[in-house]
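re: ur question from earlier - yeah i can do the single chain one, its not a big deal. heres the input i used so u can compare w yours
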Amino acid sequence: MTVVRELPKNIEAEQVVIGSAILEPDSVVPEILQNLKPEHFYQRRHRVIFTAIRELASRSKPTDIVSLANRLEELDLMERAGGRMYLNELMDRVVTTGALDYYTEIVREKAVKRAIVDIGSRISELGYDEEAEASALLDRSLEMLTEPDIVSSRAQISTIQEAFGSWDEQIRRLRSGEGGMTSGYSDLDQFIRGTEAQTIVIAGMPGLGKSAMGLNMIYRQAKAGIKSAIVSLEMPKEAVVERLVQIEGRMTSDDLLYKPGQVDRAAKRLLETPLKIIAMDTSSSVGIIQQMRLLNRQGFKSFFVDYLQLMKLENAERRDLEIGESLRLLLEFSKHFGACVITASQVNRSAMIAGERGRPRLHQMKESSGVEAHADIILGLWRPSYTDSDEKSNELAVEFLKNRKLGHVGRTIKFVFDRDRQTIEMEGGAPF
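and the output i got, formated as tokens:
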């Protein structure tokens, strides 16, 4: 016998929300319009009434019961809204509007649960598609789980006084040396002011040190106690671990073979850090974001995605749009969860023939016009030794090509890159 279960709903909460909007429109309507949509309501008559309220508000018209009833009759929707008696009944449901936030959240939660039920049904149907590849169906399932009805968030609205207070607190923490989440390098931190909710792109020619820079940054963040993760789209997890052991132990690849005691000590220290490795078996941008969301729920706040050009989106019309949209998804993730997202991006060969020894510029980002638009910070990497075989310097220059928060475009910070040991240190600075 098939059991038919009712969809999640709370009619009483919907009535209180709508009734509050009719009873005290000036204070209630702006708030509920910010946090609810017509589709959040289960009953059709509530969707009709809410839509009429939203329309009146968008035209700067009164939304009291007289104006609302008049508008519903003009649209010939009064019967669908339950009639005039029902509008008065809704107001009678309200004892106080003081608990409006509570009832609004109930309405939202029930709507999200109904959306999950709907998506679950659609995902079940995908499983019966014998013609499509399983990997494509999995990507489509993950896309469904990130649809707006599921991940939609409430906007944060602050008065200028509240916003100023929050900003002032940030400045006070910075002055006292308690700045935001570190990038791993103090020389970079002074021009970034915290990596929370920031998407950082490390740009450079192939083989220049982009992955090494990203690994060193995420490693240093983990050593500072930040729960961090490496999303590897190119290297297997064993190769990532090998590089991390080299960085931790300041060891060459030969040392890994011939100095087991040093390797064991470095590995032991590395295992004490809050660092995880995600070796993806798919390059789906949606799948990558989903894995990052799961780790974020466990408290992970920084992610290094290696690298941007390997991310893929189903049904993308052009490669440059695909990369730009993938970066936009990373940006949305960082803003929504207050996380730091670091990724690497290749630069076109034109940087080689520009006479600047591979020094990158924004217009040289490979296949990715969207990178400039969506990144918060773009760090351009270049080395004198990259194009000059006689140059023996280990110098690595890191230039701010974009810094959405603080500017400093064109400012260059010099590091020392020990390729044999995969370490990148601040010039003149002691090892981390």
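The CA atoms of residues 36 and 108 lie 7 Å apart. not sure if urs matches, ping me
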